[in-house]
TrEMBL record:
Record domain TACO1/YebC-like N-terminal: where: 5-76
One GO cellular component term: cytosol
UniProt keyword list: Cytoplasm, DNA-binding, Transcription, Transcription regulation
GO molecular function, one term: DNA binding
UniProt-listed NCBIfam families: PRK00110.1, PRK12378.1, YebC/PmpR family DNA-binding transcriptional regulator
Protein name per UniProt: Probable transcriptional regulatory protein Mal64_38370
Native source species: Pseudobythopirellula maris
Amino acid sequence: MAGHSHWAGIKHKKAVIDAKRGKVWSKLSRAIIVAAKMGGGDPDTNLKLRYAINDAKSVSMPKDNIERAIAKGSGEAGGDNYEEIVYEGTGSAGVFVMVEILTDNRNRTAPEVRKVFEKAGGKLGTTGSAAWMFERKGVITIPADQTDEESLMELALEAGGDDVARDGDTFRVTCPVDAFNDLNAAFEAAEGIEPESQSLAYVPNDTVTLSGDEARKAIQLMEALDDHDDVQQAAANFEIDEATLAEMEG
């Protein structure tokens, strides 16, 4: 939407800085471990693993780190037993939030995530309290310098995609979960297109626009969740007007 920016786009613009790279690599290692544990260590037959590896490569995670994570998940090198959990909550401005967790100790993680919400003026909710606002979809980001929106839209729709949106210097393509594999295959076969990230995520059905202090509190909550070691992804249904965003970035 012109004049506004989604949280997903704001997060993308921040990029991965060197000071945080170790934390990002740690999270991606967990995702690779869980994917390999669930579907085996061969990315050619385990699509979830392939996409986790692609995400790791997109932030320059070393090949040795990736291989060690695959080995752990495949049972070749021992490793922790991670559990996938989804938490739901609300922010201070009433925005809805979905938080995807990978943890080896849910008794530690739950109170920590609750504290993150409360510190930012939000509240951790019960199952179903926020999920109704979101739809589980495939989300693929593609650098805008690789193609144009019309060509990308045509390719995406033919392969089962349902939307293409420009967000800064990337295109964000969404699709139903059951079309995710076909859409990725179409992009892999397309000349000159190399996705930046491929994931299943919670996409809001509707958004609210925030400004001023409400916007700053919402960003504070999402950044705090993103910084938590056990949080893999966090999604929210807010946008921020460009004037407030420019002020925050200035």
